[in-house]
Amino acid sequence: MKAITESFVVPTRGKGTYEITDEVSALLKRSGITTGLATVFLQHTSASLVIYENADPTARADLHRFFEDLVTEDNPGLIHTAEGPDDSTSHLRMALTRTSESIPIAEGRLQLGTWQGIYLFEHRSAPHRRTVVVSLIGN
Amino acid sequence: MKAITESFVVPTRGKGTYEITDEVSALLKRSGITTGLATVFLQHTSASLVIYENADPTARADLHRFFEDLVTEDNPGLIHTAEGPDDSTSHLRMALTRTSESIPIAEGRLQLGTWQGIYLFEHRSAPHRRTVVVSLIGN
Amino acid sequence: MKAITESFVVPTRGKGTYEITDEVSALLKRSGITTGLATVFLQHTSASLVIYENADPTARADLHRFFEDLVTEDNPGLIHTAEGPDDSTSHLRMALTRTSESIPIAEGRLQLGTWQGIYLFEHRSAPHRRTVVVSLIGN
What we know:
homotrimer
C-alpha cells in the first residue's frame, strides 16, 4: 500500500476551463499504483475543479456562459469586491462547483468515463498560476 | 490495508433521483473493510450524484423542480444542444451537483447520517444505463 | 499505513458559516499521519461543507446573501416545507455546495492553500448540533 502526495502548477490565461486529465494520469502512471484512489485538490478559492464533457467544445462554452449569467458581476448586493468585479463572483462560482474530486483507480488507470475530462475552472479575468495537489493511495 | 475498486450499473427511466445506498453498502460488506473510506464515482457527464434527504419523497420532488427552474431547457443562449434540449442542461446540472462523493467507514458501515441517502441524479429525459464506480480503502 | 475514522460535533447558532479547519487539523496531528488523504464528511442534509476564502469576512457575507437570493424561501413551488420555509431550501443549498471534501496530506499537514478554510455551512435558522466525520488514511 502506497500513499503519495504530489502537485503541479497550471498557468491560466483568464476565465475558462483548462484540461488537466493528462497531468493527473501521468502522476498516476509514475506512482505504479494499479488499484486505489486518486484525489485532485485545488489550492485556491477563486478557481475550481469540474469533471466535464471533453469532446465538443460547445459544451464548455455553455458552461462558461451559464456561470456568467448565474453569478453576475453586476450584482450591486456583493460587497467583497476589493479586487474587482470578479472577486466575490469567483468565490461563488467556486462554491457551486468543486474544490476536490476523487476518482477510483483500477488496472493502473483513472476510472473516468469515455466523455469525462478533469478541468480546472478559472474564474478570474487575469492570468494566474494555480496549484493542483494530487493524492494517490493504493496498491 | 485493502484497496478495492468495483462498479455496478444503474438503469434509469428518465429524469429523477435513484437511490444507490444499498448497492454501495453491499459492496462495502463484501469487502470486509471495517475502517476506511468509500468513494462513489459516476462515469457520466449528463447525470450526477447527490446525498439527499431519504425520508420524505417531497424533498426530492422539490430538488427535481428546482433544477428544472434553475437550469432551464428553453435558454436560447445554450449552443450545445445537438442531442436535444436536455443536452447542455444535463451537463450544467451535473456541474452544480457532484461527480464523486466520499464517505468514511467505521465499524464496517458507511458513516451516513440518519436521513442521508446516496442518489444518482439522472438529467436526461430518455432511459440510460449509468455506471457507478466504488473505491473502498481501509482495514 | 493507517486508516482512522473520527468525528466531532459543531454547535451552530443558525444560518451562516462556521470554520472547522482547526478541528480537522487537530485530528490529523493526533493521528501521526504524514502523507495521505483527509476526508471531511457532514452527516446532515440541511447543512453542507464548503472550502472558502478565510481572510476577509465580507467574502462569506456575500456567500450567505447569494444563497438567500439563489434559493429563495418565498418560492411557492416548493412543497417540502413541513418544518418551515427553511426546510426544502436547506436541502437545495446543501445540494449546490458539498457533503464531502477530500484534502491531501503532506509533511503532516492538510495541503490547503493560504486562503482556504474548511467551513460548515448551516442552512437552518434555528441552532443545531452537527456531526462532522473525518477519515484519515496514509502513512
